[in-house]
Specification:
The protein is mainly beta and 112 residues long. The chain has one helix at 2-15; strands at residues 27-34, 37-39, 42-45, 51-57, 63-67, 72-76, 81-86, 92-98, 107-111. The strands form two sheets. Strands 3-9-8-5-6 form a five-stranded mixed sheet, with no helix packed on it. The chain is elongated and about 70 Å long.
Length: 112
């Protein structure tokens, strides 16, 4: 009986390999900060899929890409590009803003 169980378990692993996080499909978006605004301001993404956000600071000032809902806070120097990796998002709207400049309009990532 133990031999059969062992063969069954081995067979399951061979026929159904473990999916690693880096093997899962993911989605990538790019947000650019220029002339005191984020572009695009609203981005639609797929819910349930890991997300890579590339933040490009095309301005001559330091910014802070921040989102309470995404639990992220990253300083981006002038001319710098920063990559923020996010786990799969649940459906909903996730706002982001520049914490250094209160007059900059907020943006949102909407997972559907």
């Amino acid at each position: 009986m133990n031999r059969r169980l062992t063969l069954l378990i081995v067979s399951l692993f061979i026929n159904n390999p473990v999916v690693r996080a880096e093997d899962k499909p993911s989605e990538s978006i790019e947000i650019t900060y220029v002339q005191r605004r984020f572009s695009p301001e609203m981005i639609n993404v797929s819910a349930g899929v890991p997300l890579t956000v590339k933040v490009v600071n095309g301005s001559k000032e330091r910014i802070e890409f921040e989102s309470f809902k995404l639990n992220r806070e990253k300083v981006v120097e002038p001319g710098q590009t920063l990559v923020v990796r996010l786990p799969a998002l649940r459906p909903g709207s996730y706002d982001f803003f520049d914490d250094f400049h209160a007059d900059v309009p907020e943006g949102a990532i909407v997972a559907r």
